[in-house]
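Lecture notes, unit on protein representations.

Consider one protein chain, 74 amino acids long.
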Amino acid sequence: MTLQPKFTQAQPVILDEAPVVLRFAGLFPQGLAKERQKLKSDADYVRDLRQKWEPEDAARLSRITLGGIDSGPK
């Protein structure tokens, strides 16, 4: 004897959960947008630091290459 699943009983449960699923589906793109904005902000911050440090690093490398007094690690 084979039991047949009763899909008619499962349908109301699925329909009851639809608003929750739709709410999560709506929140997902918002979460991604916030995460993208945070990553962009972090990247901008690091880019600014790099631009600030590059002249200092170039000057230090120049001193090291020329064998200046300050040629050792700090």
